[in-house]
Prephenate dehydratase
Amino acid sequence: MVETIAYLGPQGTFTHEATQLLFSNKNSELVPYPTIPDVLTAVDQGVSDLAVVPVETAVGGSVNLTIDWLIHHVDVPIIGEVIYPISQCLLVHPQHANRPLQDFVRIYSHPQAIAQCQEKIDEICPQAEIIYTESTAQGATILQSNPEDLALAIGTKRAGETRNLVIKEEDIQDHQNNFTRFIAIGHKWVDFQEEQKSVKHKTSLQVTLPSDYPGALFQVLATFSWRKINLSHIESRPTKTGLGNYFFIIDAELSHEHVLMRGALAEIKALGCNVRVLGSYPSFQVNELQSLKK
Ligand SMILES: O=C(O)C(=O)C[C@]1(C(=O)O)C=C[C@@H](O)C=C1
C-alpha cells in the first residue's frame, strides 16, 4: 500500500529534501502542506500516514511551533529523526541574472534561512527589504511568478532548478556547520532506508514537575546521570496554564525499552512527575550533502 507523507512544502524545501532522504526506499506519495500546523494536523487526523517537520536549527535553536503543536495540539509519536546539512543558495529570476546585487530591493525567504545568511546579506545586499515566507521554497515560487519584481530568494538548489531560476551563488550560509534536525511522526513504525545508518536511538520525553518541590529538576536529571544515560537536548516550554508553568522536554540517547531507561522513567514518576513519551526512535546524521544527490 502506498504511504502518504506530509511535509512542509511546497516542493523544494529543505524539509522536502529531508523527507526524500528518510523515505527514499518507500513506495510513498509525498504531499506538501504550506505550514507546520497543517503538516502535523494532516497526520493527526489520519489524512496522511506520516509527516516530516523541522524541529531544531543550528542558528535559531528549537522550532517552537513544532514543539508546541506536538505537545498541545496533536497526539502522534515521533518515529525517526534526521540531522541534515543545510546549503543555502541565492536565487534570482533569469530576467535579472546579470544585474549587480545592489540593484535588488527585496529578498524572500523563511526566517531561519535569513538568520543563517544574515552576515552574507549585510555584505552583498544591505539595501534589500526582507520579506519572510512560510518556507524557503515559497519565496522561490514568488520570485518565479513575479518576473518584474527586482527580488532575490534564498533556498535550496532544487527549488531554483525546478522553477527555472538562476542559482547565483551556493553555500551562502554564514556558518558551514549549518545543520537542521527534522523529525518524522506517525502512528505506524517504519523501516527507514537500509543504507541509512542509525547512529543513535533517542527517546523524547515531556516531563511536568510536581509543584513546590525543591530541587525537582535536579532529581529528574540525576536519574539519567547516575545511570550514565546521555541527554542530547533539554529545554522548557510553557504549559499555557499560567505564568511560570513549564514542561521540560528532554531527549535521552537510549530506547525507552532499555532496562536503564525503564528504571529512569519509573524513578521520575515516583518523584511525582508526570511523564509523556513523545517518541522513541532512530536518529540519523547526514554529514555530506553529496550523499543526497542520487
Ligand atoms: O523553508 C524550508 O525550506 C524549510 O524546510 C524550513 C526550514 C526551518 O524551519 O528552519 C528548514 C531548514 C532550514 O533551517 C530553513 C528552513
